[in-house]
Each structure stands twice: as C-alpha cells, then as structure tokens.
Design a protein that fits this description.
80% of the residues lie in helices and 0% in strands. The protein has 16 helices and no strands.
Length: 414
C-alpha cells in the first residue's frame, strides 16, 4: 500500500519540516484540536437544566449542539483557506477571540433564541482551532509521521473531553448551566494567550489571491479525488456516530437510565476513555500494521458497538453497563479511524493543507450536525433512535473504507 503522499511534494522554501513542537506548543495544539470537543462535552450535563430554565423541550435544547456543529462545519471552509493565505497564527488568534466572545454571550443569553445565535458564533469561531492545528501538523510532518503525531495529539486531546463532563457536573453541583459557558470563556482566553508559543509554519502565505471561488474550487477538487473521499467517509462517519451519542447522552443517561445529573460526567468519562485508547493505540500500531489494517480495526469496533446498542434498543432492556459498553466500543473505533483518516485526506494535497483540512472538517462536522439534529428530533424516550443512527453512521464508515482499499486492490490487479 502506498503512503499518504499520493500528491506529495517538497515543502515550500522557507518552511521546513522539523522536530516535534515544544511541550507548551504541543499543549496549545491539543487545545486547538479540542475546541469542538470541549465546547460540546463540557455542558452536556446541563442540557436538561438548560431546557427547564429556558422552558424548551429536548429538541430545542439539543439544537444548541447541532447549531454549533453546523456553524463549525461552515467556519472550516473559511478559516482553512484564510490560514493558507495569511498564516496559521494570526487567523487562529482571530478565531479564538471570536470564540471567547461567543462563550460570553452564551453565558449571558436570556432566552433560547439568543443562546442559539451565540452558539452559532461560537461554533463558527471554534472551527479555526482544529482546522489550523491539522494544517500545522501537515506543514511540519509527512506521511506516517503526520498520522502518528496527529494520533498522539488526539490521544492527549481526549483527556480534555474526558475531564470536561466531570468539570461540568461539578459546576452544576455548585452553580448552574451558565457557569459551564463561563469555563468555556476561560478556555478560549487561555488558548489565545498560549498562541505565542507557536511559530508560523504556513508554506503558502500570500502566494495566491484570496477568493471565495477558490474555496469552492478546493472543495470540488478534494471531493472528486477518490482517496480523499474514502478517508472522509471512513473518519467522518465514525465521528458522526460518536456525535449521535453526544447529542442524546444526557437524555438517555439521566432520564432513561436514571443517573443523577451530577454523576453524568463520570459515565461520559468512561466512554471517552474508549476514544482516548483508540487514539493512543493508533499512534503505536500504525508503524507496525499500516494505515489500512488500523482503519479496519477501527471500523469493525465502531460497527460492533453501534449494532450492540441497536440490539439493546430492539430486543434487550437497556442497562447502564450494557449501553456504556456499546458506546465505549464505538468511541474506540472512532479513535482508531479519525486521526488516520484526517492526515490521510490532508496529505493528498500537501501544498494546500489548510484548504484540504477545511474540506475534511466541513464534511465531517456536517455529518455530525446532521446526525445530532436527527437524533434530537426522533428521540422518543428509548435507546432505539440512537442505536439506528449510530449503526447507519458506522455502515457509512465501512463504505468509506471499502472505497479506499477495495478500489486500490482492483487497480493493482488491473
């Protein structure tokens, strides 16, 4: 199997690949990658309280997640190309400033309408974090090295959503759901402060005129490339399956399974260890097994976990251990798939890593937003809608894997 760099080339003059970033710079990269995860996971335990306080139902409360992710998807199409043109650091600084303003507006919102608008702003701005972090990794590393470093970042980043729901639950014990957005404001400001530890890595600053048509052209170019599309389906669908659980977890765990809201974070911590374990395992096994086998393990784990949830929704009385086991397996598969898929897709376009990262992120988050919206509007007080949607997403991940590697096998035999 060939390496990632199907369209590989040398880095532009003046920007060279180098050693891994410093510890502080690595922490900032982790925070950038974690923007979406911490912005959703931190306040999950507060969603039922938010709904009661603002006098809305589950579907409207869940929209605070879907609106965030929809804006996050669109934002990546803007911030990725901007970072290719103006550089990674200044664009990240603008994004984090806007993110912090959005978090403040969420904390102060008096009603659901203004809260949704503020979440839209926050989601748009948060997209600058992971899209620029992925581009920085691709600027500095190539091929399997990029995948390995991204997996290491993803594994370390998983500590953030691992702790975020627990912190959110503690805040509910002492304060209310608004304090959770106050902590997101602090997260944004600290990450903005830490940007100074990063050095500029963009190889294409000012090399091409910035135009929206160029963004759309990059979108079409990426999605018309079979390998890029396969990586997007494989990794993006695994993420959509995970986001389906994120969108319905508070209702299932608190309302259906009867776990107190102040204990919700601990249940979420257990399933996030699945993602963290998958990401760390990916970083270790990719050099030995290769990308193809690692992705195969991830797809099978995600599919098995989702089908077990579906079986509980159809035939078995759901229990907390049984539900958490299925979600753990699904998250484990996502950890194995996502980093490899991200770096594989982006490495197909080494001289426009920001744009390729934006396209990957847009499709990935659009799929997640769609799955979150769907589960929010079909939730009926049972596990069944979540099991159906997660299983469908896992099957799409399998289709992406087959598009990637079944197609290559046919090409080699021809």
């Amino acid at each position: 199997m060939r390496g990632y760099g199907g369209r590989g080339g040398r880095m532009a003059a003046g920007v060279e690949q180098d050693e891994a970033p410093s510890l502080v710079a690595r922490a900032v990269l982790i925070a950038l990658v974690a923007c979406a995860a911490v912005s959703t996971d931190l306040y999950l335990s507060g969603i039922p309280q938010l709904a009661a306080d603002l006098r809305v139902g589950p579907a409207e409360a869940q929209l605070t997640l879907s609106v965030f992710m929809a804006a996050f998807a669109v934002g990546q199409l803007v911030f990725g190309p901007l970072s290719d043109h103006y550089g990674r650091k200044p664009v990240a600084a603008v994004g984090l400033t806007l993110y912090s303003a959005g978090a403040l507006a969420c904390m102060l919102a008096p009603g659901i309408g203004l809260l949704l608008a503020a979440r839209m702003v926050q989601g748009f701005a948060a997209s600058s974090g992971p899209v620029i972090a992925r581009a920085i990794v691709r600027d500095r590393f190539q091929g399997a090295d990029a995948a390995r470093f991204m997996s290491q970042l993803a594994g370390a980043m998983a500590v953030v959503p691992l702790l975020a729901p627990v912190l959110g639950s503690w805040l509910l014990y002492w304060f209310d759901w608004r304090s959770q957005f106050g902590l997101l404001l602090l997260f944004g400001l600290l990450t903005l402060t830490g940007l100074r530890s990063l050095r500029e890595t963009c190889p294409s600053i000012g090399s091409a005129p910035l135009a929206f048509g160029r963004v759309l052209a990059q979108f079409g170019t990426c999605l018309s490339q079979r390998r890029f599309l396969g990586f997007v389906l494989c990794g993006g669908s695994a993420f959509a399956a995970a986001f389906t659980w994120i969108s319905s977890a508070s209702w299932i765990v608190i309302d259906l399974l009867g776990v107190p809201a102040t204990h919700f974070g601990y249940t979420f911590m257990l399933v996030v260890t699945g993602y963290m374990g998958g990401a760390f395992a990916s970083a270790r096994i990719v050099p030995r097994l290769g990308v193809q086998r690692t992705l195969a393990l991830g797809v099978m784990a995600a599919l098995g976990g989702a089908l077990w949830l579906l079986a509980q929704g159809l035939w078995v009385e759901p229990s907390l251990p049984g539900v958490l086991l299925g979600v753990f397996c699904s998250f484990l598969g996502g950890g194995l798939c996502l980093s490899n898929s991200q770096m594989g897709a982006i490495s197909e376009f080494p001289m426009s890593a920001g744009g390729a990262s934006a396209v990957f992120g847009f499709v990935q988050t659009a799929m997640a937003s769609g799955s979150g919206w769907l589960v929010g509007h079909t939730y009926d007080g049972t596990l069944l809608p979540t099991g159906i949607i997660m299983s469908g997403a896992a099957l799409c991940s399998l289709a992406g894997y087959l598009l990637l590697f079944a197609g290559e096998g046919s090409a080699r035999r021809a």
